Protein 1
Amino acid sequence: MKALVKAKEEAGLWLMDVPEPELGPGEVLIKVLRTGICGTDLHIRTYDAWARQAVRTPRVLGHEFVGEVVEVAPGVQDVAAGDLVSGEGHLVCGKCRNCLAGRRHLCRSTIGLGIGRDGAFAEYLTLPASNVWVHRVPVDLDVAAIFDPFGNAVHTALSFPVVGEDVLVTGAGPIGIMAAAVARHAGARHVMITDVSPYRLGLAERMGVSLALDVRTATIEEGKRRLGLREGFDVGLEMSGRPEALRDMIANMTHGGRIAMLGLPAEEFPIDFARVVTSMITLKGIYGREMFETWYSMSVLLEGGLNLRPVITGRYSYRDFDAAFDEAAGGRCGKIILDWTA
């Protein structure tokens, strides 16, 4: 079968013929239909410092996907051939304290699909049945392909109650835009998103935010005044990983404000912890999705009318992966989809 492989310890990706994966105990064999390109995949393509320590070659990339089940191992229940599925890309041990307590998203021995195990950028994929999410209601294939990052957005946006609250989102990447849309859909009064990309701020406006603020030309304080806020933001969603973004967010929270942080910084940086303490601000780190409560919420949000189509801005045949990756890396885009049927 064809697969997109990190074949060498250098920059680049290679479209190669590799053996079809063999179905193991408790697993499901999936024919991949579409995949989404993630920032993690871009890191692996450039083979930066993180990728060099995280990925052993050769490795089939990819963890955002939708596909059709073609075979299940003996004893697998609730997943059947013909089912349309996506998958949870964090494979957990099932034995540690958190796994046994039902907190699988906190497993200390998590293996990442497409990082520690061959992934979804291929014509076929195997995955433990316990990691498979069956789409029980109709869903657009492009949207189903990005359930993984959509789950990051939902997990972050719903970490704290947002009904009637004023929400600040720093970072208008695709996940930040989806998180802003989720917060608005879930009942936030105002949702302001910040970035330095006019293109992505425009995408956020089309997704229904109250205010998309270019922080090159305006401050968050000015944004608060435009929205008529007297004190500060109740909930912050930090999606950029930028030091200045978190510092500005902390400075503009109301007392007792709550911040969920998904953005991953490239290095350590200082913040004003005196402000965090005296304003009684809560900081919560977010990684991945809650299994599978977040997935349930994702499906219900879509059933309830949340429209993610505007955040998907490009689709390519998998054979044109270089052009797709170039567009994704350029930043003037939303989510980019690879079609494995074209």
Protein 2
Amino acid sequence: MPLSPEQTAEIEELRSTPQPTLRATVPGMEAHLYKAHDVLDHGFVRVIDYMGDDAAICQAARVSYGKGTKSVQNDTGLIRYLMRHWHSTPFEMCEIKLHVKLPVFVARQWIRHRTANVNEYSARYSILDREFYIPAPEHINAQSTVNNQGRGGLLEGEEAARVLEYLKADSTRAYDHYEEMISQDGQDGLARELARMNLPANIYTQWYWKVDLHNLFHFLRLRADAHAQYEIRVYAEEICKIVADWVPAAYGAFEDYRLGGANLSATAIDCIRRIVKGEVVTQETSGMSKGEWREFEGVIG
């Protein structure tokens, strides 16, 4: 189970004793509070706390820009204007705190986004659970032949079976040795802070992750993208659902301008203008490298 019995009891207690508040609340987020959303085989994402809503973004923008926003007729229009013109500070007025359980190798990717506050479960003080991420057969892929940091086609047959067996056996053996090393049954036992070095990168860790909406959108733009690694992408996709219930107008603008939009270079825009005029443009005549041209073709279809 993703949640421990202790965590489940804590959640049930917190949800059973709601407190009145004068601060802005969002019904969709109130429903998410403390509820764990399962991700991968043992992971989850759950909302611990949040601050602000769509109205908070608009309030901050109107304080910042004053009469310059009077031409925007409604909050949704203002939010779309802010997103369209890359105004970031109004979105920083909203914050969210998440409790995330994730494999260590996913955490190492995630922590590269250095714009959040993080507190991780400490294996110096506590003993990590015997829980490992083992990918489903449909996510066992070969190395991509066109992308040095991506997946290619599925592994099949004996090779796929052998890989899965290695992952399971190596994880189990490493944890067995971890338990043996820290055991104080008939021995002093190795310090936990040393024993943890032998654990595999697919073991699960947990952390609290607090971030403002502007930086969260940056995280989601990269990690919810189809080119992101599957194991972090599914976390980003789950967070997207939560954010859509929290700030629907802001998320709608983000989905339109960031997730569904594209940034084009001056060279790419020039190529589009030439194509619209009826010119046949190829990679050789575009002024782009092969990689740029491949990405450009992906955008224009």
